[in-house]
Amino acid sequence: MAIVAQTSKLGIYGRPALAWIVALVFFFPIFWLILTSFKTDADAVKPEFLFFFTPTLDNYLNMTENYDYWRFATNSVVTSVLATGVALFVGIPAAYAMAFNPARHTKDILMWMLSTKMLPAAAVLYPMTFLAKSLGIFDTHFAVILVLTLVNLPIVVWMLFTYFKEIPKDIIEAGQMDGVNTWGEIKEILIPLAWGGIASTALLCFIFCWNEAYWTVRLTTTEAATLSKLIEGNRAPEGLFFGRLSAVSAAAVGPIVVLGWFCQKQLVQGLTFGAVK
Amino acid sequence: MSSRRLPRLLQAPAVILLLFWMLVPLGMTLFFSFIRYVLASLNRPEWTTPSIDNWRGFGNYAFVLDSKDFLFAIQNSLLIVGGILFLTVFFGVMIAVLINKVFPGQGIVRVLLISPFFIMPAVNAVLWINMILDPVLGLNGLAIEGINSVIASMRDAPVVGWFFSLWPEFKPISFRATQTSAYAVIMMVTWQWTPFAVLIFMTSLQSEDEQQKEAAILDGAGKWSQFRFLTLPHLARPMAIVVMIQAIFHLSLYAEIEIVSRGNGNKNLPYLIGEFANNNIGAASATGIFAVILANIVAIFLLRAVGKTLME
């Protein structure tokens, strides 16, 4: 057959080989970060120890001492989990109403929500700092959670909406016939049915919160500072502490990269608002 | 409760929160952009409180437009965003086409490729500018030092020594100057966002019409013309979406610039706003309004493209 004949030997071996090379090149900086994290600070800047060195775990064992890692990590976990929770708590009813009782303006509201996401954060930098300081919530978990919720709410509503739309309306209406109230409908019917979609929305929202690097840096100093702030504050331009800096960086991104592997597919939908299928 | 009021009630918290988020800070920025407002001033203490009495009209805008930094920041923003967009779309299409067919280890290749996207921006910047690009202590410097020492040792070797004695000493490029640090930012963000483009193009390629392709092959179309006349047109829409979403994200790039630049003059609009906001809030706000306008121009196109598929 013509189609088979076109696949040359080069095609059979060349394509996978090239694909592997590309993948390894892209992964290399992460590999390098992990490798450096097992070197002592002194070894990390010596050319003779580029690849062959005596590995050490000290950088990881001393993370608390060197950087107070766990305090920042706790802040990251607390703010990301709570912001995701609040965003879902507000987002699920909104997306439910939009998907099952669409009104004339539903489309406009969705578009408008999306447009808030396009507001450049820097444009409202000073007002947010001003508001946070005058309300006495600057550098508190509350402020960080509030901002992270607001920043991610459009994506959460949008993603949930695209998932809910797939659920047949009849099932929800059958529930209405049985006299279940709205809260019951959401709890008993919608959430079990859309569990997968809600979980991946939550996962993606959590990742975005964790990686957020504008507001978490600008609205915190010490108390509510997250891992982004920790790394940003220890950029070490003189390269004195490459070993320990690599370790704390690897610890900051490790869990999220692994989580990310599980939601590649949802990422496409979440970031393109369902426009690419 | 009537069936019309309930949906509105359910949407209300989300709408009110976002309305607050959009109107209050942006309204304040707009107000501050029309008044004289500084954080500290010995001569004019009355300017340190935001008040309508300090009305300046479009004075802040004129001040910002006149400053050299503003033009440079706009140019640099466009250079950085444009560079990233071109590279991510180019590599994204190439890699997506490359790994779209089934081959051994495809799953692992995908996992390795997507990983950079989940690295937090601060770590991305620290990793690249220090561990990789530093001209002395980073991989950049270490590798070049290694090459130089190999060449130096070869100079004493018999027979081939004269050949290596002709070689110059290599010098690593520094990525801490104004212009080169912009390239460093382009490099690290391209590394992070190419996986995103790959992921989207791959999703789109899976819906490509196989029958059409087979017909083209039977008609004797070569690999290049299949790619040029079938695959590329099929990817036109996802490309537009990748470009617009990235444009919106990268116009507000901050952590990378902050970490890489360190006051060496490499700045974009958000960074310039941050600089102004250290004292001159009026100017920072006027710059902020310019940033909003710039983002809106991009956003209008994106919303149109997304809006079409919304209610399908």
Describe the structure.
The complex is a heterodimer of chains A (277) and B (312). Chain A is mostly helical. Chain A has two domains: 2-59, no CATH class; 72-233, MetI-like (MetI-like fold). Chain A is 71% helix and 0% strand. Chain A has helices at residues 2-6, 9-37, 58-61, 63-67, 69-100, 106-116, 125-134, 141-164, 169-177, 182-193, 195-211, 215-218, 227-233, 242-261, 264-272. In chain A, helix 6 runs antiparallel to helix 8, helix 8 (141-164) runs antiparallel to helix 11 and helix 9 (169-177) runs antiparallel to helix 10. The longest helix of chain A is centred in the first third of the chain and has 32 residues, at 69-100. Helix content of chain B is 71%, strand content 0%. With 312 residues, chain B is an all-alpha fold. The model of chain B has no long low-confidence stretch (mean pLDDT 84). Chain B has a domain at 67-118 and 183-310: Orthogonal Bundle (MetI-like fold), CATH 1.10.3720. Chain B contains 13 helices and no strands. Chain B has helices spanning 5-32, 59-66, 68-99, 106-114, 121-132, 139-155, 161-165, 178-205, 210-218, 223-251, 255-261, 269-276, 281-310. In chain B, helix 10 packs antiparallel against helix 13 and helix 12 (269-276) packs antiparallel against helix 13. The chains are: A mainly alpha (277), B mainly alpha (312). At the A-B interface, helix 1, helix 2, helix 5, helix 6 and helix 7 of A face helix 1, helix 3, helix 4, helix 5 and helix 6 of B.
What can be said about this structure in brief?
The complex is a heterodimer of chains A (277) and B (312). Chain A has 277 residues and is mainly alpha-helical.
Characteristic terms for this protein:
heterodimer; A: 277 residues; mainly alpha; MetI-like fold; 15 helices; globular; B: 312 residues; 13 helices; 71% helix
Describe the secondary structure blueprint for this structure.
The complex is a heterodimer of chains A (277) and B (312).
Chain A: H1 2-6, H2 9-37, H3 58-61, H4 63-67, H5 69-100, H6 106-116, H7 125-134, H8 141-164, H9 169-177, H10 182-193, H11 195-211, H12 215-218, H13 227-233, H14 242-261, H15 264-272
Helix pairs in contact in A: 2-14, 5-8, 5-11, 5-13, 6-8, 8-11, 9-10
Chain B: H1 5-32, H2 59-66, H3 68-99, H4 106-114, H5 121-132, H6 139-155, H7 161-165, H8 178-205, H9 210-218, H10 223-251, H11 255-261, H12 269-276, H13 281-310
